[in-house]
Amino acid sequence: MGTLSIAAVCALAFAGVALDRLWGEPRRAHPLVGFGRVAKRLEATMNPDHDAGHADPDDDENGVPARRASSVATRVRGVLAWLVAVAPPVALSAIAVHVLPVALAWALHALLLWFALGARSLADHIAPVEAALIKGDLADARMLTSRVVTRDLSDADEAAVARAAIESALENGNDAVFGALFWFVVAGGPGALAFRLANTLDAMWGYRTPRLRYFGWAAARLDDVANYVPARLTALTYALCGDARTALRCWRMQAPAWDSPNAGPVMASGAGSLNVACGGAARYHGVDEARPMLGAGAPPLARDVGRALTLVKRSLAVWLAVLAVAAAASAFI
């Protein structure tokens, strides 16, 4: 973080978290909305032949060479598109925090962390699901949960809706809170910004659909790399803030079976810490997907949705406490 001391990192981290709690995400003119529009235009412009996985008239009799060349070219375009989207704002923010006066540079660091964090937004989206389930309004709970997950919940029962909300809370605890904090500690506000933008592109491009399978490959892999360490620190913190023994066992035994190398540890540890059974079958884009089980115990109920949010909040408190201890220790070194 350049010239920032450990104490400054701690103070600015607290400031960013405080701003997120106070303001949440911007309701109007959200910068990510503009970034999303740019990302959509980039994808439409740089991924015109999105059916590269289909046979090409110029393929040989087995349909291999042209298809392979097309998939490689599409992946290269995906890398270039990622760089075009992410590099300019991150580079500009990095230059700004080095050339601005100290007070303004510190303010920019805190604002960039606020932009990258989503703790309040996570609570604002998940807490109403718990409230709807407690009231017995399953239709409203389905609708609210569908805003934060991509799976089909049209005929989901209470346990399935609670399971989806809990999984979203646990996974987004890493993506929207701890990943941003980790990269803020490593590289300041520009690091947190880079993480948020990379995570956004993964959410937009990182799907294995015919259109995005090759183009979004770079976005998905780069997000995996950026999340590798934060996800494991998140999983460890979830374990420490609940049933640690069960959480660590679930992490060790269940996470390797999960498709995502980072979501697996986070959700397995979190579900184990809460002593609820998550994972299992879910429907995506009209197709039933048999997913591995996560966690242990009974299927989740309405109150378990709130418990998942509490786990994220306690974990955030642990991270901030560790930063405070590090800052205090640095004063004696």
UniProtKB/TrEMBL annotation:
Main location: membrane
Pathway: Cofactor biosynthesis; adenosylcobalamin biosynthesis
Region (Disordered): 47-67
GO molecular function, one term: threonine-phosphate decarboxylase activity
Subcellular location: Cell membrane
Annotated transmembrane regions: 79-97, 176-198, 316-332
GO BP terms: cobalamin biosynthetic process
Topology of the protein relative to the lipid bilayer: Multi-pass membrane protein
Residue stretches of biased makeup (Basic and acidic residues): 47-56
Any one annotated GO CC term: plasma membrane
Annotated keywords: Cell membrane, Cobalamin biosynthesis, Membrane, Transmembrane, Transmembrane helix
Family label: Belongs to the CobD/CbiB family.
Function of the protein: Converts cobyric acid to cobinamide by the addition of aminopropanol on the F carboxylic group.
HAMAP family the record matches: CobD_CbiB (MF_00024)
PANTHER family membership: COBALAMIN BIOSYNTHESIS PROTEIN CBIB (PTHR34308)
Name this protein carries in UniProt: Cobalamin biosynthesis protein CobD
Gene: cobD
